Amino acid sequence: MKNAIETFNLTKVYNNNFTAVNSLNLEIPDKTIFGMLGPNGAGKTTTIKMLTCLIQPTSGKATVGGYDVQKNPDEVRNLLGMVPQQVSLYKDLTIMENSQMCADYYGVPKDERDSRIEDLMELVDIKYARDKRVGQLSGGQKQKASLVASLVHRPEILFLDEPTIGLDPTTKRTLWDLIRELNDDGHTIILCSHDMHEVDMLCDNVGIINTGNLVAYDTPQGLKDSLLEDNKKELKEALSQVHEESEVSSSKIENLEKLSLRKMSFLLQNQDEQIISSIQENYYYQIIRT
Ligand SMILES: Nc1ncnc2c1ncn2[C@@H]1O[C@H](COP(=O)(O)OP(=O)(O)OP(=O)(O)O)[C@@H](O)[C@H]1O
Ligand SMILES: [Mg+2]
Fold first, then answer.
1. Distance 42 CA to ligand 2 centre (A)
2. Do 97 and 226 fall within a single domain?
3. From the CA of 233, how far away is ligand 2's center (Å)?
4. Same domain membership, residue 84 and residue 192
5. Which residues lie with the beta carbon below 6 Å from any ligand 1 atom?
6. How many other C-beta atoms are found inside a 10 Å radius of the C-beta of residue 7?
7. Looking at the CA of 161, which ligand is closest?
8. What local confidence, expressed as pLDDT, does residue 278 receive?
9. Alpha-carbon gap, residue 190 to 131, rounded angstroms
10. Are the CB atoms for 204 and 34 separated by under 8 Å?
11. How much is the pTM?
């Protein structure tokens, strides 16, 4: 399978001499969903900005769809769509006007343009605000507007930098469905997120970045398995109890407490989806701590 994205020692040193991304080597296979995890300040957004030609790498190389981000930025831009962490639409224009501008920039046929925008607005439930200026929208509404504008040209490679932050649960699920549908249609998706459940459910592969370095790369299941294999046999048992039993035994919780895993033992006493995702979160971040 060819790669949608490849980086070779990709590095960004900001002007203040701070190395935000440090010799990153990454391969993202074509038509897959890649999840990028890592704590605040890890270098995720900086990586995405280099891959989407918003900032120049200091050294190293990256290709997107086979094109070099430094030598062929126009070709790269034509392939990609981007939902940035900070919404970057024009505040004085409406959602419709912003989306039309994006569509025109990417050469979306005029006779398809408005109906595509309307369909997307309907999908993320923002049609009711179609003629409001973006500057007057709420945080979640802005996020929805940003999604519409970035999807209107049906980009081959879509970058989503924490796209579900601030979205209500229903819209979040609609977006997850949309991401899956786009992927089924052959689009490659790069998703930055702090939501472990989201990454676990959606992604084919996950990369964990910490202080500008790639510290893990695997399938979500592979990551969890390797952590469990290493030293947390007890946790595996406890987690399976969460799925299989109505109650986790108190002796199990005591065992976990002995392992200094107080937070997890507490979490295991409460059993719902959110809690399980918190446990997954702990698994992932053990990679960073160890
Ligand atoms: N323009 C800049 N100039 C100097 N340093 C910067 C600049 N932009 C980002 N940084 C620094 O680079 C590091 C990585 O930032 P980045 O935005 O890539 O992190 P992130 O992984 O996306 O974090 P978050 O999860 O909080 O979004 C941070 O320490 C940040 O302070
Ligand atoms: Mg970021």
1. 8
2. no
3. 33
4. yes
5. 14, 16, 18, 20, 38, 40-46, 85
6. 25
7. 2
8. 53
9. 30
10. yes
11. 0.81
